[in-house]
Amino acid sequence: MIDIHAHIFPEISREQARALDPVQAPWLKITGRDAGMIMKGDSEFRPVEPVLWDPELRVADMDRLGLDVQVVSATPIMFGYALDPGKVADWAARMNDLTLEYCAGHPDRLKALAQVPLQDTERACREASRAQAAGHVGVQIGNHVGDRDLDDAQLVEFLHHCAVSGIPVLVHPWDMMGGGRRMRQWMLPWLVAMPAETSLGILSLILSGAFERLPRSLKLCFAHGGGAFAFTLGRVDNAWKYRDIVRQDCPNPPSSYCDRFSVDSAVFDPRALRLLVDVMGSERVMLGSDYPYPLGEQRIGALVGETALLDDDEKRRILAGNARAFFNLA
């Protein structure tokens, strides 16, 4: 089994974070032998487990779960897209080096995705290429930079660079919309806004016509099962058919672009997974867990491996085969 959606958080000190930004930059406070806290300046952001910064504990947990490989990436709070581009470029390079150090002891089990200063296209392209040469198997980006979605000309330019450079891209939702009073409780930003953010990223590329301008060689995957995309695609196709404002920049039905990207399997329900495979095709769904966070799959691979709604060939593709091809893994 190859899990393509799993996070780390290196042992970043408060002093290192201050060099990026004294108020917003994240760092790690070790609060006990088996616990830590991601901090954002002086504020607590999220309690975390040591597998985030201890690769030996992670690999032991992978053995327990029956996982062969994890493709690990930054916790999205580390992106820094709202901060000074020059400082974030240095920060991303340092975080990428730390991610490779995290993987170095188990190179066959742990594979690294890079982060980039996406607010600056030139710097982002440079760091993506540097990271690729250093040993990263791809790059993880957020689904937007401020109010710029993935159809923004500069973000499309970055995706084009990844396409021609053979750099796979994982898109992760972050900085969710609707964070005011209406979503204060019950983790609603993660339950409502996160799927919406992911769908917005996909539809921004489809309806803007960006996929028409991007090379088909682009390897692009959206985390969290593509959000609400598969479950609202009929509505989108219907709107494209009957409303010219929807299709003005999109020459083909939205559903025809499903062969331009992949998604992970983190949907937590066998019926939802079956629909996702029916919409995307079994060759474009990869095992993703969101490990080790609480909203992730607790028994990684169980949803795919145990459902009677997938056949054996579909399971083999989703559990490992598609990821091996997507990330060029041996």
Explain how this protein is built.
Keywords: Decarboxylase, Lyase, Metal-binding, Zinc. It holds the Pfam family Amidohydro_2. Monomer. GO terms for molecular function: aminocarboxymuconate-semialdehyde decarboxylase activity; hydrolase activity; metal ion binding. Its EC number is 4.1.1.45. This protein is an alpha/beta fold. The chain has one domain: TIM Barrel. The protein contains twelve helices and 13 strands. The strands form three sheets. It has an eight-stranded parallel beta sheet. The chain has a three-stranded antiparallel beta sheet with strand order 2-3-4. The mean pLDDT is 95.
What is this entry, summarized?
The chain has 330 residues and is α/β, with parallel strands linked by helices.
Which SSEs are present, and which pair or pack?
Blueprint: E1 2-8, H1 14-20, E2 26-32, E3 35-40, E4 43-48, H2 55-65, E5 69-74, H3 85-104, E6 110-114, H4 121-134, E7 138-142, E8 144-145, E9 148-149, H5 153-165, E10 169-172, H6 188-207, H7 210-213, E11 220-222, H8 229-242, H9 244-247, E12 262-264, H10 270-280, E13 285-286, H11 302-306, H12 312-326
Parallel strand pairs: 1-5, 5-6, 6-7, 7-10, 10-11, 11-12, 12-13
Antiparallel strand pairs: 2-3, 3-4, 8-9
Helix pairs in contact: 3-4, 4-5
Shape assignment: globular
Count of all domains = 1
Structural class: alpha/beta
Tell me the number of strands.
13
Mean pLDDT: 95
Number of helical segments?
Answer: 12
| Model regions low in confidence, pLDDT < 50 over at least 5 residues | none
CATH hierarchy: architecture: Alpha-Beta Barrel
CATH superfamily: Metal-dependent hydrolases
Pathway: Secondary metabolite metabolism; quinolate metabolism
Subunit structure: Monomer.
GO molecular function: aminocarboxymuconate-semialdehyde decarboxylase activity; hydrolase activity; metal ion binding
Keywords: Decarboxylase, Lyase, Metal-binding, Zinc
